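Troubleshooting entry. The earlier prediction with copper (II) ion gave an output that would not parse, so I re-checked the input for stray whitespace and re-submitted. Clean input:
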Amino acid sequence: MSTAHSGLNSRGVALASILLALLLILFVVATVYVFAARLYLPPPPISHDAALVDHQYNLTLYATGAAFILAQLGLAYAILRFRDRGQQARFTRGNVALEILWTSITFLVFVGLGIIGRRAWADVRFAPSASGAIEVEATTNQFVYTFRYPGPDGKFGRLDPSLINAPAGNPLGVDPHDPAGQDDIVVAELTVPVNQPIEVLLRSQDVIHNFFVRELRLQQDAVPGIRIPVHFTANRIGTYEIVCTQLCGLGHYKMHSLLHVVSEVDYQSFLKRQAMSP
Ligand SMILES: [Cu+2]
């Protein structure tokens, strides 16, 4: 190989490696900008648990963000530093100490994040709700939500699947002969008082659906055959969307309901209004 050819080649390699390194740096800067400029923000959280989830999300983002930036800049450096200068290629079998080091760091960071995040996730699902929580049953089916309040007696009436008849006004199959069910309130939207613990008992009549409220950062599947409790305490009055996040059939795209967080006074008048309606 002539010297002239080799010089041309190393110039070409230098240009390509500089361009590639610059592209990587640009990629890192653009990615960091999207997050640092907070271009895509979720709606503000409306519960303490939601704030915990946001905090955990940020911790994970910082840890994975730091790893991302270091890895990409390291790659850019290696592309420049070890480019072809006509030198002899060197073979390496790796470094056991380094392998152990970065595997342990990765392990510790991810297990650590999991342990720290336990409160944000598990408390909502495994810990019982606060005593005196208002129980509301949420039943999903293709493609609607139906909510049931136990009424003044505080007891849900017996359900009988053979009595399910939505056109006749009994979408849940409440047994009319059970006295506990006679005052049950069955509605299409969820109304709860602000700053009070709510326990939602999730059920499904057909396939797997989901109960997701972005502002609560609460997302839980509804599974046929089991009643899944989730709890929340909303601290901001307003109307929020409840959506199904499981692809549950052709009408999935329009399966949604509303969560109305209202004052205690408005909640009581809601209950009264519902008790009076037939
Ligand atoms: Cu659904």
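This one parsed fine. The mean pLDDT is 90.
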